[in-house]
Amino acid sequence: MALLPPWRRFVVAVVTAVPLVLPLEIAKGQSAYSKEVQFKWGTVVLDRSAESLSLEVSLRPQDWLAKDSISSIYLERGVDQGLRFPERTVYLALSSETGLRMQSVIIRNEKEIDANTLHVKTYAQENDSTASEKLTRVDKAKLTNSIRPAMFVAGYEWYRGIRLARITIAPFSVANSKVRMVVRLKGSFAVQNAQRTISQNVPQRRLMPSAISDALVLNPEEIQSAGVQPLAWSDTTGLWFIPGRKYLRLEIPTDGIYRLNYDDLALVIPEIGQTASSSFRLYNYGMEIPVYYSGENAPNMVQGQFLEFVGFRNYGSSYRRVPAATEDYPEYLNRYTDTSTYWLTWGSGTGLRTDTSQSGGSVIDTLTSFIESVHLEANRIFLVIGDDILSSQIPGWQSNKAFAWGFLDLTSPSTVFFNASNPVPNAAVRVFARFASWAAQPVSPAHRLALFINQSDTLATATAAQFEQKLMQASASSNELKEGTNTIRLVSMPTASSVNRIAVDWFDVEYPRQLDASAGALNIQWPSSLVTGAHAVRVANVASKNLVVYRVGASTKRILPYSWTGASPFVATFIDSVAPSDRHIIRLEQFIQKPIIAGVKQFGNLRAQPEGADYVLLTGKEFKTAATQYLNDIQSRENFRTTLVDVQDVFDEYGYGYPTPESIREFFKSTTRWPAPMPTYVCLVGDATYDHKYEIGLSPNTVRPRNVVPSYGWPVSDPWLTALSDSSFLPQMFIGRIPANSVEEFQTYVSHVQSYNSASMDDWNKRYMLFSGGDPTTSGQIESFRQVNQDIADRLLRPAPTGGLATHFYKTTNPQSDYGPYSSAEIRSAIDNGAVLINYIGHSGTQTWDNGIGATLQLMNNRGRFSLITDFGCSTARFAEPNIKCFGELFTLGPSSSAIGYIGNSAYGFTSIAVTLPQMLAEQIGPNANARVGSSHLVAKMNRMLNYGSLGSTLDKVMMLTNTLIGDPVVSLQLPKVPNLSVYGMTLTTIPAAPSDDDANTTVVIPYENLGRVTPDSIRVKISSAYGGSTRD
Q1: What is the 3-state secondary structure (H, E, C) of 10-40?
Q2: Is the pTM of this model over 0.85?
Q3: Residue 557's closest CA among 360, 294, 355?
Q4: C-alpha torsion sign, points 836, 840, 844, 850
C-alpha cells in the first residue's frame, strides 16, 4: 500500500535550496573537474585544474529585477552618496598560500538596459522603530561613465581556517548615458602557488560545517584538503600578563594621586611581608606604570610603608573635533566605562619606579597660574544625526551616532552652569560648544547660533547646514567670570527653516586660574604657549607642608624638594622641567586617595584550550552554576566538546579588565588557535544594553537591563562578535543570546528547552503558522508579503518530504481583515494548536506586529509547546534597549513565553530583505529534518546575500549583522525525521455499514494520518478476525 502524503494529497515537487551543486564529473583523486552551481540570478560553471580555473557565468536579467511592487533594478546609494549598481559575490576555497591572477574576461553577450527600470531606494525614519521606503527613478543623463571589469578578484579573506578568494561579478556599465548589462561572460584565472592536488578525503572533524561550505563556496569539496590557514591576528592584548600569576585589580574613578599602604595590601596579599618590594609592578591598558615606593631600597615591605601612583579616569581620545565620515564619534570619556582598571602584581621581576631625582638650577620664569579646563556634559539621550537611514543601521559608533545632552529650540536656549575658582583677571578665556543639526529643512543656513557667558555680549556666532555637526569656539575676557557659579548660553536664532532643532553634546571652558591650593588639590594643565624648559612653580595657600606633587607627561616624576615661605597657609615653590603637554598633580596628603580594591585574580589562559570546543557558552559569574548544568545536558545530548567561559575572564585577558564587546571578539579570534575545528556554536547567556554607563535619562521606576555580556554598537550586533576577519562582515559561528536578567529567567528558558526536547512527536510537529501584514496604503505591499508566505507554504512546507499543515493568515482590504477569510473560531483554534514554526512578514515595532499582534498572549498555544518565531520587520530583536523589552525577549523569557527561539532584527527592517530572507530560511528548515536554529539562520543569511546581494552591499551588511537569534543556536527543531502513521481517534468504517454473512465481500476503510516525514515508502496492513475463540489473519 502506497504511503500517501499526510492531511491531503499533494503533488510532490522538491525544490533544492540554492546554490545547487551538481555531481562531480571526475573520479576521486583526479586533479581537475567541472561543476555547475545555480543561483537565483544565474548559473556559474566552474572548470578547475591544478594550475588554472575558469568561471562561465550566465545571468538571467529578469532575476536581477527586484521582487517588489514594480519591476526595477535598484541602485544603492553608498556612504559617499555615489550610486552603486548591483553586483554579486562568489567565493572559491584555496589552499593556504594560493592566489588567483586574472588572465582574461570574455564578454559573450550583453544587452542595453531600459533606463526606466533604474531606481534608487531611499529610506526615511517614521518613528523610533519604523522606516519607510521610497523609490526614485534615476536620471540616466546624470549617470557618470563607469566601465570596469565584469568579473574580478575583489580580495581574499579568512573563513574558519580556509583562505577564500572573493570574486565580484559586476555586469553593469555606463557609457555616454547608456547602461549595458553583461548576460554571459567567462573569466579565466591562473592559480598561483598551488600547493596540493584536489582531494575528496574528509577528516573526521570538518573544518567548516557542511551547511556553511555548501552555501558559501563554489568548491566545497576542496575545503578539507586545502590545509588550515591561521587567522591573521595581532594578539596585542595578551602580552602584559603571565598566566598563573596573581594580580590585584584596582579601580580608579577620578584623577588623582593614589596610595596603598602595607595594611591595605596585607588584607588581600597575605605574603606581603615576604615579597620583594622591587617586584611590585603596575599596569594599565597593558602598559607598565611607574610607582613610588616609600621604602626606597628596603628589600621587603613593612608597616608604615606604601606604594603610590598617579591614576586617571578612563578618557576617550581627541574628542574636541568634528569627526570624518569614516571615523567613530569621539567621546570625552570612554563609551563603556568612566572608571579605569589598573593591575598590581608582585613576586617576580623588577618594576618601574617613579623618578624622584631633585630638580634645581636656573629657570626661565616663575609660573603662578595654569589653565583650568572645565568639561560640561551629560549623556541623556541617544540619537542618530542625519537622514541616511540605511547606513545608520550598520552596527557601530559611526560619526553620526552620539549620546547628547538635550535639544535646543528657537524658544529654549541651552543654559549650563559651571564653577570658576580664582580666575586670573584680564586674561583670555576660551569657550567651546559641540552640537549638531538634528532637524531642519535643506536651506542655507539651516541654523544660526550665538554663544554667551554670563551677561556678556555675543562671544561668537555660527551657522550650520542641515544635519551638520559643529564645534563652536569663542574667546572672552576672564573679567566676564565670577568667583563661583557662572553660566554658558547657546542660543538658536530664526532662519528660513521653519523646523529648527539642535542636538547639544557638550561645553568646555578654559580659563587661567591662580596656583592656589586652598582646596587641597590641583590638577594642573599648562598653556600651549609655555616655553619648554625649567620653570619655578609657585603655589599659594598651602595649608600644611605635607604636600605631594607629581609631574606626568613623557615621563613621571615625584617632585622634590620644595621651598617654603610664610606661615600657614604657606607658599610652596618647586623647580621642574615643564613642557606644554605635561600635567602636574598636587595634593595635600589628606587628599591622597585609596584605589578601590576589587580583589585578587589569578589569571588563567583562555588562549590555550587543549581539547578545543564545538560549543562555547559565555556568561557572567552569577549564571555559572545554572549554566554548568545546562552545558552538561548539551554535552551528553549532542556529544559536543563544550566549554563555559566567564565573561569577566574575557574582559581581563583580552580587554585589560574593561567590559568591552571588542574584547569578546578578540577572545573568539583566539579560539581559532584552539585544536581544530574552531568552535561552531556560541551561546551568550545574559542581557545587554547599548547604554553601557546607564546615563540615558529615564523615569525613576524604569528597570534597566543588566549588561552581563555586552553586544556591539548601535543597533546592537551579536553576529559582529563572530565576524572574525577584518576584511569581511560574515559571521563565522552560529551565535544566539538568551538575554536573561536573572538566574530565574535563564532557568525559565532552560525548562523550555528541556520540555521542547522531551515532548513526543505528534501533529504539533507538522504544523506551521504564517502571518502576512503590510501597509494597505502602499500599493501592492500586502499582496507582495502574502505572495512570499504563500510560496513558502506551497513550495516548501506542504509538499514532501515535509508534508506540513501550513495555515496562512494574511491582510485583506475588501473586506478589511488582519487575518483573511477566517472566522474568529478558526483563528483561535489554529493559535491554540500552536506550530513548530511561526513566520511573520510585515511591519513591526519593538513590541508589535502590524496585524494587531501586540502581546505574547495573543500567540500562546494551549498545548504547552514552544515555537521558533521568525519576524523580518523592524526592531523586534532590539534586546538591548534601556527602557523596553522587545518581542524576542518576551516570547522567549517573558511570563507568557511560548518560543524556543526568536529570529528578528535589532535594526530597522527593509522590504527587500523581508521578501527574500524568509524564503531562504524556510528552504533551510522545511525540507531539512535535522535543522538546527543557529545553522539554519546563518546559512539563510548567506544564501540571501549570495543570491540577491553582495559583500559590498550596505543592505546585506545590515542584514548579516543585525538579523538576530534570541535563543540557543544549538537547538534542533523538532521536525519529524521518519514517517509516523496514526489511526488514533479515527473511526473505521465498512462497506456495507453493517456487514453480514450474506455479503460476499466487505470493504474496510481505515483512515490514517502521517504525523511524520513523507517518504517514498509503503506500508503493510494486517487484518485479523476473531470468532468463537479463534483468530485468523
Answers
A1: CCCCCCCCCCEECCCCCCCCCCCEEEEEECC
A2: yes
A3: 355
A4: negative
Query: Measuring CA to CA, which residue among 100, 81, 105, 79 is closest to residue 171?
Result: 105
**Contact status, residue 382 vs residue 403, Cβ threshold 8 Å:** yes
Using the predicted structure, report yes or no on whether residue 20 has a pLDDT greater than 70. Answer: no
How far is residue 159's CA from residue 669's CA, in Å, rounded to a whole number?
A: 11
pLDDT in tens, 569-627: 999 999 999 999 999 999 999 999 999 999 999 999 999 999 999 999 999 999 999 99
Please write the tens of the pLDDT for every residue from 816-846.
999 999 999 999 999 999 999 999 999 999 9
Nearest to 479 by CA among 450, 508, 512, 507: 512
Average of per-residue pLDDT across 908-931: 93
User: Which residue is associated with the grid cell 519529524?
Assistant: 976
pLDDT for residue 1032: 80
- Return the percentage of the chain with pLDDT > 70, whole number: 94
Alpha carbons within 13 A on the beta-carbon side of 184: 3
The rounded distance, in Å, linking the Cα atoms of 925 and 934 is 11
**Residues 632/659, Cβ–Cβ less than 8 Å:** no
**What gap in Å lies between CA 5 and CA 11, rounded to an integer?**
9
Average pLDDT of span 854-865: 96
d(CA 859, CA 49) in angstroms, rounded, equals 55
Distance CA 791, CA 797 (A): 9
User: CA 567 → CA 284, 559, 586, 591, distances in Å?
Assistant: 40, 22, 19, 21
pLDDT of residue 1008: 81
Q: Look over the chain and give the mean of its residue pLDDT values, rounded to a whole number.
A: 91
Average pLDDT over residues 76-83: 64
Instruction: Estimate the crossing angle of helix 781-791 against helix 917-925, to 10 degrees.
Output: 10
Across 653-677, average pLDDT:
97
Rounded Cα gap, residues 795 and 219, in angstroms: 28
Q: What does DSSP say about strands 178-192 and 172-175: parallel, antiparallel, or unpaired?
A: antiparallel
Backbone φ and ψ for 272, nearest 5 degrees, come out as: -60, -35
Q: Which helix (H) or strand (E) holds 45?
A: strand 42-48
The Cα 854–Cα 887 span in angstroms is 9
The residues near 353 (Cβ < 8 Å, ≥ 6 apart) are 290, 291, 292, 293
pLDDT for 78 equals 60
Rounded to whole angstroms, the Cα distance separating 177 from 720 reads 39
pLDDT tens for 230-261 read 999 999 999 999 999 999 999 999 999 999 99
Q: Bigger pLDDT: 557 or 12?
A: 557
User: What is the rounded distance in angstroms from the CA atom of residue 654 to the CA atom of residue 607?
Assistant: 10
Question: What 3-state class would DSSP assign to 558?
Answer: strand
For the chain, what's the residue count? 1033
Q: What is the CA radius of gyration of the chain?
A: 34
Overall CATH class of domain 369-514: mainly beta
In the chain, what are the domain boundaries? 20-222, 369-514, 608-722
- The angle that helices 954-962 and 933-948 make with each other, rounded to 10 degrees, is 180
pLDDT confidence bin for 355, thresholds 50/70/90: very high
- CA–CA separation, 163 vs 216, rounded Å? 12
Number of helices (H) and strands (E), helices first, in the chain? 14, 61
Question: 3-state DSSP call for residue 961?
Answer: helix
Rounded to the nearest 10 degrees, the angle between the axes of helix 647-655 and helix 661-670 is 90
Distance CA 942, CA 944 (A): 5
- Report the C-alpha gap between 663 and 317 in whole angstroms: 19
Q: Is the pLDDT of residue 509 over 60?
A: yes
Closest Cα partner for 842 from 795, 787, 805?
787
pLDDT value at residue 21? 33
The values of phi and psi at residue 997, to 5°, are: -65, -15
Asked if residue 731 has a cis previous peptide bond (ω within 30° of 0), the answer is no
What is the 8-class DSSP label of residue 270? G
Q: What is the CATH number of domain 608-722?
A: 3.40.50
